[in-house]
Amino acid sequence: DTEVTQTPKHLVMGMTNKKSLKCEQHMGHRAMYWYKQKAKKPPELMFVYSYEKLSINESVPSRFSPECPNSSLLNLHLHALQPEDSALYLCASSQDTEPRRQHFGDGTRLSIL
Amino acid sequence: DQQVKQNSPSLSVQEGRISILNCDYTNSMFDYFLWYKKYPAEGPTFLISISSIKDKNEDGRFTVFLNKSAKHLSLHIVPSQPGDSAVYFCAARYNFNKFYFGSGTKLNVKP
Fold this sequence. Notes:
The complex is a heterodimer of chains A (113) and B (111).
Chain A: E1 4-7, E2 10-13, E3 18-25, E4 31-37, E5 44-50, E6 53-57, E7 64-70, E8 73-79, E9 87-94, E10 102-104, E11 108-112
Parallel strand pairs in A: 2-11
Antiparallel strand pairs in A: 1-3, 3-8, 4-5, 4-9, 5-6, 7-8, 9-10, 9-11
Chain B: E1 4-5, E2 10-14, E3 19-25, E4 32-38, E5 45-51, E6 56-59, E7 62-67, E8 72-77, E9 86-94, E10 98-101, E11 105-110
Parallel strand pairs in B: 2-11
Antiparallel strand pairs in B: 1-3, 3-8, 4-5, 4-9, 6-7, 7-8, 9-10, 9-11
């Protein structure tokens, strides 16, 4: 069982819909991450939250909006997505001590119609 | 441009033999390197890491070697077991929380 829980596991949405991906961890980790992974490609870093503050935004389009309501939760709000945004979205968390190895959730498989 | 590359998409090895997975990187500022293992329908799980100040780290059957001058790292699994069959990702870290991943190598260990 993964210690990082992502919901939903699958999501199909139209380009005009608004939806949110959720991620939760209770390991006391203070860094949380969102990655996007297309088929046969590496996970690509999107956002990093450190102590509930956005510390890294890898030039992600504004149709993706992250939110960290508290130290255990990380959301990714989606609006007006494009078909090319269809991918696996992975959430991860890490402790503060080196090497900050990440614990990953199982991901949300997102399909944009 | 990918800063971390795994040039072998797949590798097949006989049970009991050594598996060697390779990874190349371009950024000399990376300070930590990590290997993750991924089963289908699951997220990656951490396997082993190495700091850029070391050239070898060993944990049981898994050893990671780092050659900084060549910007190359490798993961050795000895002896390989069928349960090791998975996709292996290498990752490199820059600036505390920025991680870059390779595209993965699918390892198949044949009984």
